[in-house]
TrEMBL record:
<dbReference type="InterPro" id="IPR036425">
    <property type="entry name" value="MoaB/Mog-like_dom_sf"/>
</dbReference>
<dbReference type="InterPro" id="IPR036135">
    <property type="entry name" value="MoeA_linker/N_sf"/>
</dbReference>
<dbReference type="InterPro" id="IPR005110">
    <property type="entry name" value="MoeA_linker/N"/>
</dbReference>
<comment type="function">
    <text>May be involved in the biosynthesis of molybdopterin.</text>
</comment>
<comment type="pathway">
    <text>Cofactor biosynthesis; molybdopterin biosynthesis.</text>
</comment>
<comment type="function">
    <text>Catalyzes the insertion of molybdate into adenylated molybdopterin with the concomitant release of AMP.</text>
</comment>
<keyword id="KW-0500">Molybdenum</keyword>
<dbReference type="InterPro" id="IPR001453">
    <property type="entry name" value="MoaB/Mog_dom"/>
</dbReference>
<keyword id="KW-0460">Magnesium</keyword>
<dbReference type="InterPro" id="IPR008284">
    <property type="entry name" value="MoCF_biosynth_CS"/>
</dbReference>
<dbReference type="Pfam" id="PF03454">
    <property type="entry name" value="MoeA_C"/>
</dbReference>
<dbReference type="InterPro" id="IPR038987">
    <property type="entry name" value="MoeA-like"/>
</dbReference>
<keyword id="KW-0501">Molybdenum cofactor biosynthesis</keyword>
<keyword id="KW-0479">Metal-binding</keyword>
<dbReference type="Pfam" id="PF12727">
    <property type="entry name" value="PBP_like"/>
</dbReference>
<feature type="domain" description="MoaB/Mog">
    <location>
        <begin position="176"/>
        <end position="317"/>
    </location>
</feature>
<dbReference type="Pfam" id="PF00994">
    <property type="entry name" value="MoCF_biosynth"/>
</dbReference>
Amino acid sequence: MKRNLYLNVQDKEAALENYLDALGEIQTESEMVSVTESLGRTAAEAVFARWSSPSYNSCAMDGIAVVSSRTKGASEKNPLLLREGEDYLDVDTGDMILPPYDAVIMAEELIETESGDGYEIISAVPPFANVRAVGEDIVAGEMILPSGHEIRAVDISAMLSAGVRTIPVRKKPAVGIIPTGDEMTDIADVPDTGPEDGRIAETNSWMFDGLVRENGGIGKRYDIVPDRPELLEEAVLRAVRECDIVIVNAGSSAGRDDYTVHVLRKLGTVLTHGVSIKPGKPVILGIVKGKPVIGLPGYSVSAYLAFREFVVPVMNRFLLSGGRAEEKIRAKLTKTVMSGLKYEEYVRVKLGLVDGEMIAAPLGRGAGASMSLVKADGFCVIPKNSEGIMAHEEAEIRLLEKPEQIGRTLVVIGSHDIILDVLNDLMMESQSGMRLSSTHMGSMSGLIALKRRETHIAPSHLLCEEDGTYNEAVIREMFPGEKIVLIKGVRRRQGFIVKKGNPLNIRTVADLTPEVRYINRQKGAGTRVLFDYLLKKEGIPKMQITGYEHEAATHMSVAVAVQKDNADVGMGIYSCARTLGLDFVDAASEEYDFVTREEYLDLPVVQEFLRALRSREFLAKLEELGGYTAEEIGEIRKIHNFLS
Ligand SMILES: Nc1nc2c(c(=O)[nH]1)N[C@H]1C(S)=C(S)[C@@H](COP(=O)(O)OP(=O)(O)OC[C@H]3O[C@@H](n4cnc5c(N)ncnc54)[C@H](O)[C@@H]3O)O[C@H]1N2
Ligand code: MOO
């Protein structure tokens, strides 16, 4: 099969409009459901009340039922005596009121007679006072909900009160999901130890199934189709017979086995192959036997975005829904994101509020970075024909997370350590509703973010080469005249992460001979500073280290690179080596602290962070991870550096 080179990508809006036009008017169907099961469904027709509610005149307050006309003339000067059995009946809220009674006086307004045989009242009551008249809430025949209304819990109770038991709702569109690819293994068949080399656990179909349900449809997953066009043809034809919409996943691009587009052309028509969004470019919009068949790219982020932009609008056609309104906010980016001119680019971001300003920290941009979706609070969309957005500029963010949650976020930018995940977990476990959102950019970038008031806390382990101390020296230099505090964190062991048994026998930087493949950390990372310091001490030039330019963003990615033999050695913390069953050669003990502004200490999110940091659970967790000591944990050191 020849490669598909699709260089003519279409604009997203034009492609979608053209596709919806080609699909024409969709015959929507409805089905009857019990009102009690109708939550979230869309009413296919207007719903009318069968009964009135209340269905009888009912007492609205606890007190006595009276005949209103007989209370005329009662006043403070001329109180009226009411006798039990003759003039009134004791009643409670919800009781039926029958003639001749037509009004209720609240218990609080009654003055008991001294003899206890009745009450005195000092004002007259009008007819139907404190009475819920029949039909006061809902009148039989009244329209309760218009057609197209999405049913909520309150609607359910109103319908039931009005005697409506079943209603017609729009039928959920059935969305067929066909995963493809020779390398795919159904999750049920993946060994417990993980997929064999070269195999991939088929996970996208489960994401689509969830997305289909979230958007009001029914997902129908089909077996994985191997890379053979005749099998895909068969699968598509079957799915088209059984479903309203069909998704074919992967095989949408230019690979030799990417023949989805050929199959769809053979079975029907393809209106678009390739749109100007990134990730998500290789979308295929086809029609087979009148049904929409959409080819989505294999990478999970691309697949998710393309689903949002193309499958959801088609599903909304079936539901006759305008779709959910997207919430948007403006936020300041913490770092520059560059973008090509040809595509509209979707950058996932984490959000937080620092000093009253919304801050967006961009996450990993790879199309396969599914964790960027897990962590994202929103997307920043960089338009076509834009080269990108500069750091500290404002951008529009489409929200995925609730705005309230964002206000309860402790923003942490700086050096990475897995204890940040543990602290977030401890904060989330408590009743506070607060969370910690950390972006790993290295110690130096964290301090710069703190300087610019773009983070609450900057975790840092910056060595002062002159005196071997940590953090204080650089803070004094960077924050003259500002009130900065150091929240003491942990001492942690830094060293060489090597394969089990240390086969290359690495003990010191001097053992990093040219045959040894090193993996480094990004510029500005404290671990890189430490490595450079060790090299300098030994008089070893950086350029002599094989792999000095090979960078990873976290300790854990260094450890994985060693585990999977992309490198022989890298510097990192003990706990990461241990988690992956690797060996560790001690090189230094360093201080990993949390830098913040003094004025932030009183913020509830910072207080909650301190609580988690000083908790017994956290100490226990450090013990479990290994490689940490915490003698000064949670202590606060003021670093006020006022120049005289
Ligand atoms: N020469 C070119 N190569 C590629 C281009 C291009 O323009 N020219 N586009 C790239 C872009 S952009 C994307 S996105 C991908 C899309 O590729 P396909 O849709 O053809 O998907 P595959 O190559 O088959 O798979 C990509 C990736 O995703 C994994 N995958 C696939 N299905 C699943 C599933 N159901 N569950 C989990 N993971 C899945 C698959 O194993 C691959 O790792 O193409 C670029 N290439
Ligand atoms: O455009 Mo692809 O969808 O970036 O990964």
